Amino acid sequence: KKMLVLLFALLSLANAAPTTIVDKTLAVPTITVLGTPNITRYLNTAHRASLNFACKISKITVSPNFESISAEFSDPLTQVELEDHLGEPESIEWAHVMQTPFGSTDPRGQERQLSTLGGDLGEFLTVVSAIEKELGVTFNDTLVLHKLKVYLTVMSRDKFYFDIDAEAVNHFKSVCNCPQLNIADPPESKKALLLNATNSYLSQGNEFFRKLLNNSQAFEIRPELVSSVIRAFYKVMWNKADPLHRRIKFILMRGPLSPKGFILVKTPGYCNSQLLAPMISPELCAKQMGIYHGDAAILLRTEISGILLMKNPESKNDVVKKANEISSSSLAALLADHKEPIYTVNFEALNDK
User: Fold this and answer.
1) Number of C-beta neighbours around residue 166 at 10 A
2) What distance separates the 2 farthest-apart alpha carbons in the chain?
3) How many CA atoms lie within 13 A of 279 on its CB side?
4) Residue 348 to residue 353: CA distance in whole angstroms
5) What is the pLDDT of residues 16-71, one digit of tens each?
6) pTM for this one?
């Protein structure tokens, strides 16, 4: 009997999840579920989301969206480098859009991902802005927080993504004079001060949100709404009494921002109808590459719109259309001052010639 107990203990240790190191500036205390940390549960879900699906394509075509690259731009991403990075069609890792968080277009990530403007929070903001425009309403902080909680409760994915970088974290630290600040779990006495600091573009490590606050006239989104959405995100993440905080995936982007290329991803209609999109890493060798999954992002906007408009579903199609328009203009505004080469990567259907 003792031998059986010992054997069971050894098997339990062998199957235990490896220790995960989390940056202290972003460490979000979570409740243990069935003896497994929440972050490991997410990783397992992401693993399943990317390995259980595939969309058959015939080839991957890379098309430059430029005539020439400025001679002043150092070490740009070349078409050959990008084609080598993408590899062959059969090597592509596909993700189910409704089970996978969307990262941002920030090129400092390393893992294969789906990417859009501002990550999940950016798409939430875009849809809420579209609802305002289509329904003729104006959302305050209370309503935005309510809508974010509704979406986090009903959404099909485990995690909701947003990111920050070291410069933005340092700005928060200077505002509250807290050199050891964990921005994901600050002291209660500092929360009001930190929430007020989110109105500054200096507190945003995410390029989309930083530009929305620093140059709002270039975008079609109310700056007050931008601030409301950011505050709602932090309120949810900081409220450890609310289980919804465990849905947050808050990432620290490391190192300097130095994009050498940007790609626009296009996928066949039958892949989109299966809710599948190709996962791509923004890092290749020593070069950074921004990524925008435009077709997949439309699917995400459709889900967000459907959840936020449960009481008036007849407006959903108009809101999705408006959100797509806002996103297109936002992308143009975001890239207006970018100097790196931009490519379109087309995952071509089997019957395309």
Assistant:
1) 15
2) 76
3) 23
4) 9
5) 433 233 444 454 433 323 333 333 233 334 444 444 578 999 999 999 998 888 88
6) 0.85
